[in-house]
Amino acid sequence: MPPRSVARWCAAQGWPVHPLAPGRKTPAANCPECRARRHAPADCPCLPAGRPCHGFHAATTDPGRIDAWWTATPSAGVGVACGPAGLVVIDIDAHAAEVPDRARLLPGIAIPEQVSLAGLASGFDTLALLAAYRGRPDPAADEDTLRVRTPSGGLHVWYRNPDPDTRLRCSTGSGSRAALAWQVDVRADGGYIVAPTTRTAQGVYRPVGSTRLPAPLPDWLRDELVRTGHLVAPAPSEPPDGPLTAPAEGAGPMEVAGPVKGAAHAGASGARDGTAARRPTRSGQVPPARRAARTGAAHRILDPLIAQVARCAEAREGTAFTEKLNRAAYTAGGLIAAGHLDHAVVRDRLVRVAQHARPWQQARNEAIVDDALAVGSARPLHLEGRS
Prior knowledge:
387 residues, alpha+beta, six-stranded mixed sheet, three-stranded antiparallel sheet, 33% helix, 10% strand, globular
């Protein structure tokens, strides 16, 4: 089926689509103006003008716009914006990689030493193990939903989110942040998935079996996604003005550039499962000068970390980009939770600098920022005495 027909078919299902670069699984390149000027997709004039900039942010179900895009580039692949489409796709990887310690295979689940892991080598194995732990069928073998074999030997298991009021975020399963399982990614709000029959230089994304539409996301799998921090919580309300108290007893001190690696695995669920992070309390008014001094101190902490992320633009690999972005967003989350910085402003700044450094992975950049902000927000960073 030609890519334009695939795009039209997806749109007919109510799934907004956007073009991918020909022969690749990444979004089509931005226009020269967008590449030359850093800006938020929401502020870009290209989107209302119908240009396919900013990846899944441009996704549409409009037949006229789809025809125009694929007439201009007939070989462009098809990406589906998961959030607006109401899709949750379990992306099972089969990459050759060293198997991590058993504590990292299923986040939040302790696998006893007596459980043999002989032969475990990929996301197929960890997802099957998770299903077995819960006494549920393996999603990779779910013949009642759309499944797509990837050119690398992985599998995309497509599900429909039956609850439009519940938003689930993307994640990667091989990183240090919270995940469903090792080598099992999640494509949902804030990301996209490659449409079936799309051809890349590595091969074709081929549907498996006879089912061509997603089934509702199983309740148990939704519960696992919520447990592992995939629930998108509502934006936090603004903190009140006033002196900021220390976090509750037992919260512990937070290092300015605190341990980000594995932080999402180690007790951050309070901020990432939809519950509110601890908020600063009010005990009188803070003079504007003192409040401004604390904001300035917060920026002096955060600015060098953001500068490290920006310098990752100098090379495509080997710069520890993910670790540096994690650290900056984690620290920002603590400063935001303590009331020193504004969430929306700081998130936008982090996403912009990440996009500057890694413009080809916008969805992943946003997921890293959102996850680390959520983890950091559970450990407010108070700056009394700093100026």
